[in-house]
Amino acid sequence: MMHYLGIDVSKDKLDICWLKDPAQLKIKTKVLPNTPKGLQQLQQWLDKNLPDCPKQRHICMEATGIYHEAAAYFLHDCGYRVSVINPAHSRDFAKASGSVHKTDKADSMVLARYGAALQPAAWQPEAPEVRQLKALIARIEALQTDLQREQNRLEKALIVRTPLEVEQSIKQMIAGT
Known about the structure:
Keywords: Coiled coil. By secondary structure, this protein is an alpha/beta fold. Helices cover 53% and strands 20% of the residues. The chain has two domains: 3-118, 2-Layer Sandwich (Nucleotidyltransferase, domain 5); 128-175. It contains six helices and five strands; from the N terminus they run βββαβαβαααα. Strands 3-2-1-4-5 form a five-stranded mixed sheet.
């Protein structure tokens, strides 16, 4: 038997809803911190309440910038079926289902119901090499942006007669010292 869970992920916490009985909308909820320790607690809670195979647990969460990533990777590595869905899809599903409450708990229930009703595809994480390459590219782009900002500041500093200490500081940043 497949168990459906929804997790509303935010920067600080995970609002979890286990849809115990989809037909009767019986649920069990839990709130945990969105931290490595909180993820360990989530795994323990799942193992305690759902002692069957991890593959029998389908967990739906929204793509929330970067905040969902740690949970998605952790749960996937634990062997759970994880679906990371577009927030617009869950919002449309909530409207179509008549869900009018907009709370974290209600959102986690919508996500669990979404998983049960629509059976979204399992999320597949990128290979570690791809993630590493993307992180390196992002870092290079950030450094290039920072360098351009400092060059723009130096140009402005030379025009408006900025104090020598500030000009030297900008030049040091550009030189990387």
